[in-house]
Design goal:
Number of helices: 8
Strand content: 35-45%
Largest sheet: 7 strands, antiparallel
CATH class of the largest domain: Alpha Beta
Structural class: alpha+beta
CATH topology of the largest domain: Alpha-D-Glucose-1,6-Bisphosphate, Chain A, domain 4
Shape: elongated
Number of domains: 2
Strand order of the largest sheet: 1-7-6-5-4-3-2
Distance between the termini: 42 Å
CATH architecture of the largest domain: 2-Layer Sandwich
């Protein structure tokens, strides 16, 4: 969460001779999204990048993102006319769909401004969720409590909005992660299984790397053609892919997406997430059965790798 509050904290810090000021802050949000979806929105790097900036005037640049125990997330918050703020988040505990604990350090121009311990407790159902975040803050550059309250408040509002237009699909595929990854990231095999049952792909260009793209048509069983354009912004070997979905080549973006791959007792847990650009697009996708069609796509992936 550092990236959400860093600029507010830095620019709103009040000079205070009482260095090392401590505070415990609590934030609560009820979110109209299923529990697994809120967890993904809270932890997945691609989702965090969407809701990171507390306001449109803030640009967040992610330098590093490794969401696992012992991993860390490093970002720069940029506001015109102000020094960059470096935000470091280190993951100490991750209990899926239940709890996370991380430390965070905010610094600027080589000076540490604050350190904090952040605990997030998540609960809910398949319809609604609740997030309670506790921040144990130590301000080192003046009293930063007000900035933290404002920054976290804005960030959690953004998170709730993003989660409510997020779709998450998961499937445990009975094949090793290297095999599943290879089927996904091979330009010859990806078009063979991608898409729901009965659909086929017609590729125009495909370049599966960071900064690459896949321009293709999906063809429905009745012959209807759906132009697609995927732009890849992250490829982390055998761990995750981040990309944007566009309506046809260079068309409007309709979702930010990611796929993650986890070992699970010799099998592979695949998580496919999509944050739609608007709530209306999310509702429209749900209406035409995007979740069911997406699960069919993951089913085709499993049949493809198991049969080889």
């Amino acid at each position: 969460m550092t990236q959400n509050l860093a600029t507010n904290s830095a620019t709103r810090a009040v000079p205070d001779d009482r260095k090392g000021r401590f505070a415990t802050l609590t934030f609560e949000r009820d979110v109209a999204a299923p529990l697994p979806v809120l967890w993904e929105a809270w932890t997945a790097p691609a989702a965090r990048a969407i809701w990171a900036a507390p306001s449109p005037s803030v640009t967040v640049e992610f330098l590093e993102a490794d969401t696992r125990v012992g991993g860390r997330e490093v970002s720069l918050c940029k506001v015109e006319g102000h020094p960059d703020i470096r935000c470091e988040c280190g993951w100490l505990a991750l209990q899926p769909a239940l709890c996370s604990v991380n430390y965070e350090v905010i610094s600027s121009e080589g000076l540490t401004q604050s350190v904090a311990l952040v605990t997030a407790d998540i609960s809910g159902t398949h319809e609604r969720s609740r997030l309670v975040v506790t921040v144990q803050l130590s301000s080192l550059a003046g009293n930063m409590e007000a900035g933290y309250r404002e920054g976290f408040g804005a960030g959690l509002d953004n998170l709730a909005g993003a989660a409510e237009r997020t779709m998450v699909l998961q499937r445990v595929i009975q094949a090793p992660r290297s095999i599943v990854w290879g089927a996904w990231m091979n330009p010859e095999t990806l078009p063979q299984w991608w898409g729901p049952d009965g659909f086929s792909c017609r590729t125009k260009r495909i370049d599966l790397r960071t900064g690459g793209e896949w321009v293709f048509d999906m063809i429905a069983p009745d012959g209807t053609v759906f132009p697609n354009h995927h732009l890849y912004n992250e490829v982390r070997l055998e761990e995750r892919i981040g990309y944007t979905l566009h309506w046809g080549e260079n068309g409007p973006k309709h979702a930010d997406a990611w796929a993650s791959f986890e070992d699970q007792d010799g099998a592979t847990k695949v998580t496919l997430g999509m944050v739609f650009s608007t709530a209306a697009e999310f509702q429209e996708a749900k209406g035409f059965g995007a979740m069911e069609l997406g699960l069919q796509t993951l089913g085709k992936l499993e049949r493809f790798v198991v049969s080889r």
